[in-house]
Amino acid sequence: MTARTLPLAVVLAALASGAIGACTPPTGGLTDYAVVEGFRVSPTFNAFSRPCEIRYTLQEPATVEIRVVRVGLDGERALVHQVTVPTRETAGPRTAAWRGTGPNGLFAPQGEYVVELYATLDGTDRAESWELTTLMYRT
């Protein structure tokens, strides 16, 4: 089986439209203070050569969970990979990675994926959820 490469025009069009790398604001809790800042993922990545980098900074200690999902045509979200389970992390910059694998440990199909980050501030019910889109391709 050979992997197909997405045409450059598709990648450029997605970047221009903001479909890739566009960050939605946090949901849940207050809006005047963000637990997570600087949430970034690789807008496009080649799973054969390098993982999708996930970077963020916690302003306070928080419990963080990162998941990769695929959104179907009907809007249903299917878990592709659990990058981290809910884990207490200290304040500061953090990095995680997704190597493009699916639930069975094999490479997931190339395409568009949503990286979800959930953070709950320690000692409160304050929670945020963030989403970024990444496009995986293979050559």
Question: What does the model show?
Answer:
There is one protein chain. The chain has a single domain, classed as Immunoglobulin-like. Helix content is 7%, strand content 52%. It is mainly β and 139 residues long. The longest helix has 10 residues. The strands form 2 sheets. Strands 1, 3, 5, 6, 8 and 9 form a 6-stranded mixed beta sheet that branches. Strand 8 and strand 9 form a beta hairpin. This is FlgD Ig-like domain-containing protein. It comes from Rubrivirga marina. Keywords: Signal.
Summary tags:
disordered N terminus, 139 residues, mainly beta, six-stranded mixed β-sheet, single chain, Immunoglobulin-like
